[in-house]
Amino acid sequence: MAEGEPSCTEEGTEFSEFRCPGWSESQLRKYTFQTRPIPRLSHTDPRAEMLIDNEEPVVLTDTNLVYPALKWDTDFLQESIGDGDFSVYIAQTHKFLYYDEKKMANVENFTPKSRRVEMKFSEFVDKMHETEETGGEERLYLQQTLNDTVGRKIVVDFLGFNWKWINKQQAKRNWGPLTSNLLLIGMEGNVTPAHYDEQQNFFAQIKGYKRCILFPPDQFECLYPFPVHHPCDRQSQVDFENPDYEKFPNFKHVVGYETVVGPGDVLYIPMYWWHHIESLLNGGITITVNFWYKCCNEQAFMYPFKDLICCCWYHLLDLPWEDVLVPHVFCFLPMCHLVSLQRVSKQFQALIPVYLANCCSFDLSQAGPCIPKQMGLESINLIACRQLKDEAVCYLAKKCLKLKSLSVAVNTNISDVSVEVGAKNCPQMEHLDLTGCLREIMSPSGYQVKYSN
Q: Which sequence ranges are marked TM in the entry (predicted)?
């Protein structure tokens, strides 16, 4: 910890009820929704590992991940960071709503709320100080990937990060490669509105204090993201400071998880968790470094489709079924979502069996991780899936422990193995339709099993 910087660590403190001496409640913006504290734990606490394993947020207070950088301030960086160009966003308000420049052509008359400018670090500092002195409305926010243009002192500090610890986190969870270290330098009061990222993130605070409000992925319907084709894709449309409940009624039900991070703290932001970040009011300049990691498992493809399934399903039905939906959309959805999709409308209820009937394969390595250990489905219809085999049915039987009815009729590859596994794992099973597979018998558990030759 840099000398003179207050520590936010309190040994044995589980939740962020302990307030750091470096900030006060008066520096926090007021919102209408409720929040719960994000746990603050030592990185050696087994509960911290459990939270990361479960992809739940946690503040780690003593990783020393960016210890060499805790001396960084604008004077040190101006002297040491080098003469490269830096991406600086300039806005006329305190809100910096992200936008994808490649998608700007998709929306007529789209005007971004901020603009990106390339400038030297010294120019950024001068312009920031000028804005502070004149009291202007304009705000600046530097967002630059640390690369090989930085000076020697920054490189030395970077190499001194606790790579042993963070590499262990990456390897233990089979994450993909480190994609970038993003340096963030913002003015006091800057706000990054709620959005989600498609990578795992260790958010390391270096200077100043930031308030972080997170929302789990299952609050998707409460946060109203922009359409996927919009430049602000992955961003919430709701103005937290002045929410329009008529336009966004579900926002009334949103509940956040909140913390304030200070120098030396590392916040784990799981992939697809929404996060709203703000530099504290009257708190001075803030400096942060992100550690972003790709996710290699199949779950990386789940959440973006929620936008299509839950919010834009009627647009999907406008697409040509044979040419687009079946080969280019449904083939990427996990089985649990295909089953759920049947409940969206009668049109989907008719379409999904058509897709399944033409399946050439059922890849358990892709579908498996997407099905919860104890899925709540009570009825599954897999009639006429030509290549359906016992291993797929057995897998579903082991996952769907509350299953009462399973229809796998007109599947010639199904044998009595499926019956045995179903009887063993699904004690509530009442009906198993194997018409077109074998013959009618009574199962050992007493539920009706229908076969025919």
A: none
